[in-house]
């Protein structure tokens, strides 16, 4: 069954990527890696550039399951986009990396994670 990971190019994002790969291999894959770009926002540290995506691809090259990278652009809620991908892929698991510092970022990310935990039709693993 498919595993979807919401990927951000940070230390915790790469930990989530590793956890998602392990889960996808246990479940028989595929692994869908989703990096969300915010419409009209140019300097968001959650946006992965070409170099960061290549590093992520290198991390997954030896995966025993098919890996697909998707960079999705939205002006809507990030959670809604991830939920749509989970539904489209009929994913069994959604993997998220959660940062634990910076009060404002934690609060905003907390709202997204809360929505995903309550709304996902799949299991959710928070790393």
Question: In words, what does this structure look like?
Answer:
- With 127 residues, the chain is α/β, with parallel strands linked by helices.
- It has four helices and five strands, in the order E-H-E-H-E-H-E-H-E.
- It has helices at 11-27, 50-60, 78-89, 103-119, and strands at 3-6, 31-38, 67-74, 93-96, 123-126.
- A five-stranded parallel sheet has the order 3-2-1-4-5, sandwiched between helices.
- Helix 2 (50-60) links the parallel strand 2 (31-38) and strand 3 (67-74).
- Helix 3 packs parallel to helix 4.
- The protein is globular and about 35 Å long.
What number is the mean pLDDT?
85
Topology as a string of helices (H) and strands (E): EHEHEHEHE
Note the gap between the termini: 20 Å
Structure class: alpha/beta
Low-confidence parts? none
- The total count of helices amounts to 4
Number of strands: 5
Largest sheet: number of strands, sense, barrel closure = 5 strands, parallel
Strand order of the largest sheet: 3-2-1-4-5
Shape: globular
Blueprint (SSEs and pairs):
Elements: E1 3-6, H1 11-27, E2 31-38, H2 50-60, E3 67-74, H3 78-89, E4 93-96, H4 103-119, E5 123-126
Parallel strand pairs: 1-2, 1-4, 2-3, 4-5
Helix pairs in contact: 3-4
List keywords for this structure.
4 helices, alpha/beta, 127 residues, 5 strands, globular, 5-stranded parallel beta sheet
């Amino acid at each position: 069954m498919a595993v979807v990971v919401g990927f951000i190019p940070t230390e915790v994002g790469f930990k989530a990527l590793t956890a998602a790969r392990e889960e996808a291999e246990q479940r028989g894959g595929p692994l869908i890696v989703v990096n969300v770009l915010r419409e009209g926002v140019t300097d968001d540290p959650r946006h992965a550039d070409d170099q960061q995506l290549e590093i992520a691809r290198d991390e997954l090259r030896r995966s025993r399951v098919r890996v697909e990278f998707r960079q999705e652009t939205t002006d809507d809620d990030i959670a809604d986009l991830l939920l749509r991908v989970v539904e489209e892929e009929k994913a069994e698991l959604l993997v998220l990396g959660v940062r634990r510092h910076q009060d404002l970022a934690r609060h905003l990310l907390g709202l997204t994670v809360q929505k995903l935990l309550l709304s996902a039709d799949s299991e959710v693993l928070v790393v």
